[in-house]
Amino acid sequence: MKINRVIVIGFILILTACAQSSGVVPLGGDRYMISRSEKGFDVTGSAVKADALKEANSYCQAQGKELQLIKAVPKDMVPFRSDAQAEIEFKCQ
Question: Which of 9, 33, 46, 78 to pair with 89, CA 20 to 30 A apart?
Answer without folding.
Answer: 78
